[in-house]
């Protein structure tokens, strides 16, 4: 009996200890503030983890003009106080957070002051697919939800593998058969002025991973969007054109592109392969958790026959179900109305 | 004077040559010079030629002529070789107007009132209005000063108004969204002909041509205004009125091209110096040659800006680089037309 | 032109009180009037009043019976040429370009000088013996030559009346003599000349009539022999004057 008692006691202590630790982690990361610039990506990433809604106590202003997505996941979200994007350290401190989560670009400006106040910080890169894997695992450690993190990473990895596999099987692996792709943002369509992203950005990686040749690589010396005119686009002669617009209708911009008299001979225009980039609340081309949807959509535009029978809408449903716990009804009510861009197969 | 005739002919010839080089240089189908024969065989080349390069060339000519001519006119009527085309607050006012419009254009109220395609017109309009407001403020402010002649008062007022709008611009940049608005503002303040098509060209043409025409006709009168006011009054002029008239019309031309193309610096400052070195300070020659020289400079700079890389360089960067180098070379090698 | 008349001209400036009081004279064409006085006596002010640049408080200035205050600036500039004491040279204009500017009163605002204007400018230079300087830059000639070039510009205006403020004050005797000789020659060709100066020798040799200004107005008006007396000059300049025979560069002018 004594041995049994000892074993039971030991087990009890063990369990209690773990409970204690678990409580520690729960209490330890209870109060989170999401701040700084480009907070949308951070918030969308944090909300991949359940209970995030309870822990997040304040978020910096999130307005990219297309409606706030998180309100539909977390009913309490609109009630959370909004911090100014360039708020100082005292504002963050006034919420008495246990930790502040921001994009890594904020480290230099916000880090030292937060360190001085003893507030923990977690910085996320969230710029490339590799970043996402690393950052989500880091978030998992930070929030005490490693298993969930691994589930998410597995989802991304599987999607990537599926795409690579489908393209490889279709024999579209070699350089010659890769379609020449141009991705532009509409700067001033009426005057034939478009912008291309830098080579390091998600958009470029997305096109490459989808089995395309990004023609604009090397065109942009800067760290932001660079202007190109119709002449250069005609010279690039792309087979497929993806048109992004963060402020207005991407399909309308795509129609403007096709209607430009100077671009009539561009292969993409002649074959009707100019597409407005898909989006729901946010455009899928951005380094948001949705990047995988952007990649899947792009692959379908570049290789429609290979992906026939696997409509993008199914991928979207799956994504929002796994990532944000949305069932079919929630998806139809929240996401479906916000879908735009050239989604048709 | 015989040398002047040869000089005028060579400037005109240089303008024509630069114009033709510009039209046949670009990035289609390959970076470099386009074969003229392709205009007959390639429909895309034809369309690019007539709807991108041609209006842009004409726009560059207008831009350069207005900036060069106005710069020369200002330097002449103020008797000061270091005065720039936009110094009466015009450049800074235009920059502030455009920046404010770019930021305001993303506000829901404004977006609801303006259709998507009108945002550029809105920016240009706001820019033009603020440029004229700055000009008016400089003139009004100069009348309140109680010391010095009109020239000194205008220069000081112009400095004050420029500084004021410059700080307003800084404030707008501070509140602008760093991802979407700030790059647009920065690009605008560096000047560019990227969006110069037929529509924009016809918008700036009337005001620019009027300004150029007036300055051309007044080119000798402007020279008279470079003398002391006492002297020019004794020759029957009304220096304060005539100087103000020339300044306003020149500045309005500058406001128009700046509203359409952003701030393109150095043309108004350097080209008149060059013109004066070759043709003397008499406005009869220096003002028209500054117009031609400005057009040549703008064409050359924009040719580089749109051909060197696939992405467009802001024109203002190229003119500043070339202008600063040219300025230094000129000052070091020849005696400039400056009084002792 | 037949006659310049000043009738009971008075002028006061804010903060400085009465400068000129009750000045009257008549100057026929072809004659030379010197306005003599100390610095600050009002010589420049009087010249400005005569040229229609300032309006007198009382009285008036008439050119051939017409009040100069009522004549439009461009017409006035064709009748009267005013040369200030000093002027700034903003750019290194060529001498001919510089003289050509004097043709302004004859050229409409939006027009340019033509060949006839250039010919007049050339002959103005020639008249003053400056033809050789035509192609040089104004910044490269001597101070005396520059003063003469300025006078050539006045000549190009083809005005009958010349008003000159201290034409020789900044010049050495050689250049001053040259200027004085040219002024005398111009008068003999029919131009009327009024010049302000504090150079008594110049006034004595060149002027037909001298107006001596004291603190508030004319002390005396008359031919040199009458006016240039120690007591009158002593009052005007506030120092004692004696009579002596001295060498002069201006002999044999009138």
Write a concise synopsis of the structure shown:
The complex is a heterotrimer of chains A (345), B (340) and C (254). Chain B is mostly helical.
Which terms would index this structure?
heterotrimer, A: 345 residues, alpha/beta, 6-stranded mixed beta sheet, 5-stranded parallel beta sheet, globular, C: 254 residues, 4-stranded antiparallel beta sheet, 9 helices, 10 strands, 33% helix
Q: Spans of chain B with pLDDT under 50 lasting ≥5 residues? A: none
Separation of the first and last Cα atoms of chain C: 21 Å
Taken together, the total number of domains of chain B comes to 1
Determine the mean pLDDT of chain B.
89
Radius of gyration of chain C: 18 Å
What percent strand of chain B? Answer: under 5%
> Which structural class is indicated by helix and strand composition of chain B?
mainly alpha
Q: Estimate percent helicity of chain B.
A: over 70%
Major beta sheet summary of chain B = 2 strands, antiparallel
Task: Tell me what the structure shows.
- The complex is a heterotrimer of chains A (345), B (340) and C (254).
- Helix content of chain A is 46%, strand content 14%.
- Chain A is built from 15 helices and eleven strands.
- In chain A, helix 7 runs antiparallel to helix 8 (146-169), helix 9 crosses helix 13 and helix 13 runs antiparallel to helix 14 (312-324).
- With 345 residues, chain A is of the alpha/beta class.
- In chain A, the strands form two sheets. In chain A, strands 6, 7, 8, 9, 10 and 11 form a six-stranded mixed beta sheet that branches.
- The model of chain A has no long low-confidence stretch (mean pLDDT 84).
- Chain A starts with a helix and ends in a 10-residue tail after the last helix.
- The longest helix of chain A is centred in the first third of the chain and has 27 residues, at 2-28.
- Chain A has helices at residues 2-28, 39-46, 52-55, 70-73, 89-94, 107-116, 129-143, 146-169, 202-209, 230-236, 250-259, 267-270, 291-302, 312-324, 328-335; strands at 32-34, 56-60, 82-83, 99-103, 120-124, 180-188, 193-196, 213-214, 226-229, 240-244, 274-276.
- Chain B is built from 15 helices and two strands.
- In chain B, a hairpin with a 5-residue loop joins strand 1 and strand 2 (32-33).
- Chain B has one domain (5-22, 50-333): Orthogonal Bundle (ABC transporter involved in vitamin B12 uptake, BtuC).
- A two-stranded antiparallel sheet of chain B has the order 1-2.
- Chain B is globular and about 65 Å long.
- In chain B, helix 3 crosses helix 13 (267-279), helix 6 runs antiparallel to helix 12 (239-261) and helix 10 (219-225) crosses helix 14.
- Chain B is an all-alpha fold and 340 residues long.
- Chain C is α/β, with parallel strands linked by helices.
- Chain C is 33% helix and 24% strand.
- In chain C, the strands form two sheets. Chain C has a six-stranded mixed beta sheet, with helices on both faces.
- Chains in contact: A-B, B-C.
- At the B-C interface, helix 10 and helix 11 of B face helix 2 and strand 6 of C.
């Amino acid at each position: 009996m004594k041995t049994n008692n000892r074993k039971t006691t030991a087990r009890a202590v063990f369990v209690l200890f773990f409970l204690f630790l678990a409580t520690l982690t729960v209490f330890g990361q209870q109060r989170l503030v999401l701040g700084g610039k480009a907070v949308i990506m951070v918030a969308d990433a944090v909300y991949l983890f359940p209970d995030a809604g309870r822990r997040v106590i304040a978020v910096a202003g999130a307005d990219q003009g297309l409606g706030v997505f998180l309100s539909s996941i977390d009913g309490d979200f609109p009630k959370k106080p909004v911090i100014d994007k360039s708020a100082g350290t005292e504002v963050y401190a006034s919420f008495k957070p246990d930790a502040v989560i921001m994009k890594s670009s904020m480290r230099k400006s916000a880090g030292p002051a937060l360190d001085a106040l003893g507030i923990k910080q977690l910085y996320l890169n969230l710029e490339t697919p590799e970043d996402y894997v690393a950052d989500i695992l880091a978030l998992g450690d930070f929030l005490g939800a490693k298993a969930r993190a691994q589930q998410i990473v597995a989802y991304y990895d599987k999607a990537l593998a599926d795409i690579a596999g489908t393209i490889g099987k279709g024999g579209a692996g070699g350089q010659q058969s890769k379609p020449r792709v141009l991705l532009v943002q509409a700067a001033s369509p009426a005057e034939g002025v478009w912008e291309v992203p830098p080579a390091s950005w998600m958009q470029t990686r997305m096109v490459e991973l989808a089995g395309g040749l990004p023609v604009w690589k090397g065109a942009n010396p800067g760290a932001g969007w660079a202007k190109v005119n119709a002449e250069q686009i005609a010279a690039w002669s792309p087979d497929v054109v993806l048109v992004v617009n963060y402020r207005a209708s991407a399909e309308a911009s795509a129609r403007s592109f096709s209607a430009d008299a100077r671009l009539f001979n561009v292969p993409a225009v002649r074959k009707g392969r100019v597409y407005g980039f898909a989006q729901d609340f946010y455009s899928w081309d951005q380094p948001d958790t949705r990047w995988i949807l952007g990649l899947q959509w792009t692959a379908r535009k570049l290789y429609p026959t290979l992906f026939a029978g696997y409509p993008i809408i199914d991928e979207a449903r799956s994504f929002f179900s796994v990532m944000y716990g949305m069932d079919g009804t929630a998806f139809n009510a929240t996401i479906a109305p916000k879908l735009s861009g050239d989604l048709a197969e | 004077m015989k040398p002047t005739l040869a000089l005028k002919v060579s400037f005109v010839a240089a303008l024509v040559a630069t114009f033709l080089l510009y039209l046949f240089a670009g990035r289609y189908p390959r970076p470099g010079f386009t074969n003229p024969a392709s205009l007959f065989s390639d429909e895309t080349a034809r369309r690019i030629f007539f709807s991108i390069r041609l209006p842009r060339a004409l726009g560059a000519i207008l831009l350069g002529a207005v900036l060069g001519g106005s710069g020369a006119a200002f330097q002449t009527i103020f008797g000061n070789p270091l005065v720039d085309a936009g110094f009466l607050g015009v450049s800074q006012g235009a920059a502030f107007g455009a920046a404010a419009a770019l930021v305001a254009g993303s506000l829901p109220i404004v977006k609801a009132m303006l259709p998507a395609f009108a945002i550029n017109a809105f920016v240009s309009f706001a820019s033009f209005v603020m440029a004229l407001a700055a000009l008016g403020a400089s003139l009004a402010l100069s009348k309140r000063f109680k010391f010095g002649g009109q020239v000194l008062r205008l220069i000081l007022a112009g400095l004050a108004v420029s500084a004021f709008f410059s700080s307003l611009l800084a404030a707008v940049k501070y509140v602008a969204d760093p991802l979407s608005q700030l790059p647009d503002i920065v690009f605008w303040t560096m000047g560019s002909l990227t969006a110069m098509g037929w529509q924009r060209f016809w918008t700036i043409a009337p005001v620019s041509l009027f300004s150029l025409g007036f300055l051309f006709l007044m080119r000798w009168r402007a020279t008279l205004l470079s003398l002391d006011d006492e002297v020019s009054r004794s020759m029957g002029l009304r220096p304060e009125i005539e100087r103000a008239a020339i300044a306003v019309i020149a500045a309005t031309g500058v406001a128009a091209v700046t509203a359409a193309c952003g701030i393109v610096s150095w043309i108004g400052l350097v080209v008149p110096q060059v013109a004066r070195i070759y043709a003397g300070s008499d406005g009869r020659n220096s003002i028209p040659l500054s117009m031609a020289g400005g057009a040549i400079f703008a064409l050359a700079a924009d040719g580089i800006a749109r051909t060197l890389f696939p992405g467009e360089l802001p024109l203002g960067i190229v003119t500043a680089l070339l202008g600063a180098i040219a300025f230094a070379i000129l000052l070091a090698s020849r005696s400039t037309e400056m009084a002792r | 032109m037949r006659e310049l008349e000043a009738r009971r001209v008075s002028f006061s400036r804010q903060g400085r009180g009465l400068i000129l009081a009750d000045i009257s004279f008549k100057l026929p064409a072809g004659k030379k009037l010197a306005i003599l006085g100390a610095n600050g006596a009002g010589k420049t002010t009087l010249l400005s009043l005569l040229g229609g640049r300032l309006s007198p408080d009382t009285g008036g200035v008439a050119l051939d019976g017409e009040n100069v205050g009522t004549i439009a600036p461009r017409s006035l500039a064709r009748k009267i040429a005013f040369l200030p004491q000093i002027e700034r040279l903003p750019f290194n204009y060529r001498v001919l370009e510089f003289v050509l500017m004097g043709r302004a009163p004859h050229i409409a605002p939006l027009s340019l000088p033509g060949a006839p204007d250039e010919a007049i400018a050339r002959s103005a230079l020639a008249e003053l013996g400056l033809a050789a300087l035509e192609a040089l830059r104004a910044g490269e000639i001597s101070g005396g030559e520059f003063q003469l070039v300025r006078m050539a510009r006045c000549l190009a205006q083809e005005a009958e009346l010349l008003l000159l403020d201290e034409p020789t004050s900044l010049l050495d005797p050689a250049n001053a003599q040259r200027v004085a000789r040219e002024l005398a020659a111009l008068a003999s060709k029919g131009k009327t000349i009024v010049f302000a100066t504090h150079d008594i020798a110049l006034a004595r040799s060149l002027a037909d009539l001298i107006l001596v200004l004291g603190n508030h107005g004319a002390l005396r008006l008359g031919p040199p022999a009458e006016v240039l007396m120690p007591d009158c000059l002593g009052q005007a300049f506030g120092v004692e004057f004696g009579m002596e025979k001295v060498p002069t560069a201006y002999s044999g002018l009138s």
